Amino acid sequence: MSLYPAILVLLKEIAKMESLHPLMQEYKKQMERGAVANAYRGLMDYLMALRTHLQKKHPDFILSYSLYQGYMDMTYFAFTSAAISSAFLDRSVRTAIRQGAIMKIRLWFCVVFFLFCACTPAAKVRKTKGNTTFIATAADLKARIPSQLTITKPDFVVFVPECTDERVNDTGNEHFLVFDGPDGSLMAVWTQSSAESQPDQHMAFSRSDDEGRTWSKPRIIAGPKKPGEGHMASWGYPLVSKSGRIYVLYSQSIGRVDTFPHSTGWLHGIYSDDNGVTWSAPQNVPLRRSIYDNPDSTMPPNILCWQKPLRNAKEGRYFAGVTRWTSFSRYQNPTDSWMSADARVEFMRFENIDEDPEPREIQISWFAFNEQSLAVGYPGHPEISACQEPSIVKLPDGRLFCVMRTAAGSPYWSISADAGETWSQPRPLLRKDGGRPLLHPLSPCPIYDMGGNEAGSGHYVLFIHNHDGHYMGYKPTDSSYHRRPVFMVRGVFQPGADQPVWFDEPEFFFDHNGVSLGKPGTDGRLDLALYASFTVRNGVPVLWYPDRKFFLLGRIIQHP
Question: Does some domain include residue 495?
Fold first, then answer.
């Protein structure tokens, strides 16, 4: 099918969607009032509904992954032509938002560009000689898998997307959290989709009864299997009560976008009392609203807990760090990059998990909250914070040590001497007191305890990229390309030191050879963003990690 008949098909589908008509009217009403931000959020509701409808009705169309990158721009759009983007919309929209001008953008204009730039017939593919990035077909992806599966030298293979010459399933896999099951097994939950932030994004669960050598077929425990079967569920994390009840809490989208589609959502929870065989119906978990949330209380917050909560709080309660993205109704993004959207670090303590409450009865205490949240200024815009994805270890003296990603070219650290209730101001992470900063872009930088997640052993491993974002000609804002390679940095507790963990020289851990993986019809992924987890069983430390958000793997960390 050629492009123009394809667009005619899509336009006919739009005409049939009566549910979209109220959204169109609301968009026009908000624009007439001059409420630019509200109009844009309504437009995002429109495009997300349109996208879900088209993917359900016409599976032969590929909804480009680039649309997700467009959401994360201030304009929320991705255009295949940089010239068109710059000349017609990109700069003018940002200028209009900053100046508070009334934008007279017609909805038909946005939809036409959406169709041209985000919907491509599956039969119409790009073929670039020697291009190892663009994935033309399912057969193209299938041919890449054998050599790429082992390139990071994994000791365990948890999940490989099913791929034939004609079709693929679940090519997006990330936020991979492996944990000890109450029955002695290894269990895992992760966020799965055809590609990150697609309408089919859901929570998957698997288990291993042989220490990770083999894993059960993943089961969807929350969220849609196919577009149109519900709103996406994302970023789940496990908590196991003393009785053996397994909770999974996750972000549940309601189809409205406050910052990014992948972050705006209510906290929902499910549980299993039979080791993951069956799961309860989801319930809403109460959340405390922040001064950084949208003032409209019907708009969900924008939070993400990316590591497993650990029993590091008082009386062995679960404790975790959280990224809270600030609503665009509070602070507008001052640059072209999603990275300069305001984000801060807070902490949660789960008060009653061991009482086996219903999810709606889970009690959460918040620390480093509101004005006390941890913040690190974005380069050139110190009023904006880019402080995200906290990773926490216990020190031998009982204090908690937290490492966070920033846009400053280095991770930052903070410390708590009262089990996480108060935290020091973040500072750059150095090799040692008086030493040089460890280099790392705005990418996950987890730190783990070699003795076990809650051991306080004094011996740690940190994972970084060992550069500040200037990599192979790319800049710090080019996150799709510079999140590699991965270096491991061993750290040791230093009693009496200012920075309580000192680090060795970074040592190369793994990389790939520049071949992308992901959904056919897209450029796939090259990033080795470590949305990872860690277990220590029988004295064997294992890093569980996504490779290009495609494979799910595990690798043993050797003791020095």
Answer: yes
